Amino acid sequence: YSIADSSPVMIASSNVSETITSVGAGKISSPEHADIAIATYPGHVMSLTTEPVSVSNSQTNVVKTKIEELKKEIEALKMEVLHEREKYQKSANSENAVSAVVKFDIKDKFVLSPTDATYLLSLEIQSPIENVLLQCDVPVDLMDVDRNSAVVSHSAADPKDKNYLLATYRCQANTTRLDVKVRTIEGQYGTLQAYITPRIQPKTCQVKGYLIKPLSLHRRTHVIDEKRPMNELKLTGYFSLGEVHSWVSYCIPDVPEKAPPGETVTLLFQSTLLETQLVCTYAQVRERERER
Known about the structure:
Layout: E1 2-4, E2 7-9, E3 20-26, E4 35-40, E5 45-49, H1 57-92, E6 106-113, E7 118-125, E8 129-136, E9 140-143, E10 151-154, E11 165-170, E12 177-184, E13 190-198, E14 206-212, E15 218-221, H2 241-251, E16 264-271, E17 277-283, H3 287-291
Antiparallel strand pairs: 1-2, 3-4, 4-5, 6-7, 7-12, 8-11, 8-13, 9-12, 10-11, 13-14, 15-16, 16-17
């Protein structure tokens, strides 16, 4: 962006298919032009430069020299990586080798998309993903994602064993991120588990679990239509405000673990599928009012 008349104006844009962890600015590739350097979660580093792409004949040799230097640096890094891999293979096959489980970090999220009433499951690691196995103990539907290039295969699942879904995503080479859309059924609650296997040696796997709540397609809202007709269910009894809040938190997503301060709590929700409304109001009733 640039500033024109106190308003930002877009100059250029670029789509990065990986999570950006840091952004820096400075003169990196050229002492005369500013660059924007970007680092992604898998470790890739790229830059956007203000240097003109079209160069004159006098600058052609300078650009060619710069490209040759970059190619030499890349080849040197490839040889260094190859040398370290050979060194690791020799140590792993030696008699004194010790077996150890390789730990890897997973950047994941499981969020509800209000536009199409589906959950977006995003899994990203720093090394290429070999495959991801999805298992769920309640009925769910898997939706297509445009930017997903993985090949999915479904296995026979027996509901008697609490297996309603068994699907394997086999990723292409150098794929570090996988996005999957999941459509849940309200009233069915359980756990969706993802088994992530990276393309590293020795083979290892990590499991991530995601709760599917009974009213999984509801989301928090701040405004409702009070003119619409609504049914009312009222419960009174010997239970605390915290217990009622835990019931609501168990049934509906986007509810904080602790109840907000105050004697009366009101939470508003809307269905992303049917656009129905839900109002939860709970308060601490005094003993005299309870006896009445």
